[in-house]
Structures are given as C-alpha cells and as structure tokens.
Amino acid sequence: MNYFVTAIGTDSGKTLASAILCKALHADYWKPVQAGLPRDADTVRSLISSANLKIHDETYFLKTPASPHAAAKLDDITISLDNFNTPITKNDLIIEGAGGCLVPLNDHDFVIALAKKFEAEVVLVSNLYLGSINHTLLTAEYLKKQKFKVKGIIFNGQANPESEAIILKHTGYPCLLHIQQEEKITLDIVFKYAEMLKENWR
C-alpha cells in the first residue's frame, strides 16, 4: 500500500510523521521531490534504527530550498508528472510530499497530484497553532472535493483539545496520532510514537 504524507503547510512535521509511519509499518520511504538541504531522507534514516529500512532515491533533487516549481526554474528544469515512477517494493511505501497540498510542482500541477498518480492514501499532518483550524479544514475540503482517499490526521505540537475536536468533527477523519511537542527527537521517541500509531491503525 502507498501512503502519501502531506500537510497544511511547510514545516508541519511531515518528515517526523513519515519516519514514525516507516517504523510502525516496516515501510519503505520515498521523497519524490527534494528542494535544498538537508535531505529529508537523511533525517528519516537517522530516526530509525533498522538496517532493513529502504530509502528510494528522489526523482528530482533541487538545489534551492524553495517551492519546487521555483527551485526547478533556478536549476533550469521543468518538473513533469510523467517522470515520476513509483519505486518497486514488496513493502508499504511512505511517500513524503513537499510543503502543503497546493505547493506547485510546475505551472499546472500541485504536489498533491502525486498522491493520485501513485494511487496513495493521504495522511494529513496538522500542526497546531493559531489559525490551524482554518488551514486544516480548507485542506480537508480540497481533498474531499477532489476525491482523495484520506487515511486520517496526525496532529503535531502542543495539545489543543478544542482545536483537535472541531477539526475531527468537521473533517470526519480519524486521528491516527498526536505527536507532542518534544524537547528532542530521538530513536526512542520515534519508537514510542510508532507503537502508539499501531494501536490506531485500521
């Protein structure tokens, strides 16, 4: 099964969520588009203590940490959906997007288009901050309108029960996990959340 990890914005916690998903599901990891350093693939590898973790190479590795369409223009290339091919694996595959759902890959396509191309279920990461209700509900509305299959939501950050409850009520999505605001992300922290995720995975 393919799972596409997207978010309500940039720096929402997609890479950490992806590492937890890889650990919980014994899945492969793939970041189709990487813009700038550090590589999210390297971060995922550093958070999982498994020699069996398979990380697949990026289709596009762009030099500048920016929106993929802008970074690609600086590298004098154009990102094309036709150039993406799902890695061959017998394992589940965790695919990490770039930025939020509607970050552009080029002048026509958004990052979330990759989820449909790969026939992947969406895992939506919602980091909790003032304004995140609006951003999460708008993202969910787009996913529903475009008929994406959504596995559920991973909340990230200091708990906010009122925000979480209203988001779950109006999206109808299940809560897969809540990642608390940890002082430091370690192998043990990832293992802890992977075990918690297993309990909510249906």
Roughly how many Å is the radius of gyration? 16 Å
Largest sheet: 7 strands, parallel
Question: How many domains?
Answer: 1
Q: Look at the structure and name the CATH superfamily.
A: P-loop containing nucleotide triphosphate hydrolases
CATH topology: Rossmann fold
What's the shape? globular
What does this structure look like?
The chain has helices spanning 14-25, 40-47, 68-74, 113-117, 132-145, 161-171, 187-200, and strands spanning 2-7, 28-30, 33-35, 55-56, 60-62, 93-96, 121-127, 150-156, 175-179. It is of the alpha/beta class. It has one domain: 3-Layer(aba) Sandwich (Rossmann fold), CATH 3.40.50.300. The protein has a seven-stranded parallel beta sheet with strand order 4-2-6-1-7-8-9, with helices on both faces. Helix 6 (161-171) links the parallel strand 8 and strand 9. Helix 1 (14-25) packs across helix 2 (40-47), helix 1 (14-25) crosses helix 7 (187-200) and helix 5 runs parallel beside helix 6. The longest helix is centred in the last third of the chain and has 14 residues, at 132-145. The chain is globular. The mean pLDDT is 96.
